[in-house]
Fold this protein.
Amino acid sequence: MTALPPSGESAGPGSSFFASLVADRRHGRTPALLLALTVVTGLVDAVSILRLGRVFVANMTGNVVFLGFAAAGVPGFSFVASLVALAGFLAGALLGGRLIRRGRVGAPLLAEVALAEFVLVVAALGIATGVAFPAPLGSISAMAGLLALAMGLQNAMARHLAVPDITTTVLTMALTGVVADPLRRADHQRGRRMASVATMFAGAIVGATLVIHDQVVAALGIAAGLLLLVGALAIQAPRGRHERA
């Protein structure tokens, strides 16, 4: 019997990059669904940075730096909103860890997390519909906390699924791998990394374009729609081999 490839991406020699996303031997269609969540990351960070006082809700490296800026008194950075976002992210990661310890794996875990994120993003959208930007600090902090909670859940799930080369929120290692790894590495590995960059870039472009035209609700609406779609597709997804073992 032929062993699975070490990373589990490819179905065999000659497999296409597209097949590595939607028909992975170990992860099924999960790679493609995680790329959709990467678009969501770009959308929500566009909203948070451009309308919530320069706060990251998905990238905690950047948020900790922003928190330091705010603590130093740099104008334009909100210490409270950044702190709420950090706390929300950690709470989301904690909840994600509890889901994992309950035995959720693969597509069922992805479905549950995506639908939970949908609820949280819709709640943030509800707040956005009732305020004018720049919004009061309370509204900004509530939105930042809800969106960060969703991203914490997403990060815990993506970390547990450990689909190679797709993290949904952090691109530093993906970009490093594109140029640092030997060219002989499998094409689908490099392709996934570039796809992660491209999907987050696309989400940021769409989100920023909408936000600068005062369409925060539309940006969050698209993010919510993608999360609902991912949740529905994950529910219907056939399980990968590692989930049936």
Observations:
- Residues 1-14 have pLDDT under 50 and may be disordered.
- The chain is about 70% helix and 0% strand.
- The domain at 27-237 is CATH 1.20.1250 (Growth Hormone; Chain: A;).
